[in-house]
Specification:
96 residues, mainly alpha, flat
């Protein structure tokens, strides 16, 4: 077998699996992930699979929905464990 054919075959198959995972419905992803968690896999892979089962936030960064307002006198590192504070949105009209 030619080396070029081997490299192209590997690249095309990896691209196929990547595209199929990205375009797969969430129900199928969840089912597949749950099936993979029952297999004897390394701990690193299991922790990655458990992270994929968590529901993503609105912008897929998993950070916007957990932000909190830090108090001025709070210098400790546990400020992220505080409950989020609601803030009111103010819309300013454009000047014409």
């Amino acid at each position: 077998m030619n080396l070029q054919v081997l490299v192209v075959t590997i690249l095309v198959s990896l691209c196929f699996f990547y595209a199929s995972c990205r375009l797969m419905p969430d129900i199928v992803k969840t089912w597949l992930t749950n099936c993979l968690l029952h297999l004897p896999l390394p701990a690193i892979w299991i922790s990655f699979l458990k992270k994929t089962l968590q529901k993503p936030s609105a912008c897929d960064c998993s950070g916007c929905d957990t932000t909190t307002v830090r108090k001025k006198n709070d210098s400790s590192a546990d400020h992220l464990s505080q409950a989020p504070v609601e803030q009111r949105l103010v819309f300013h009209p454009r000047k014409k």
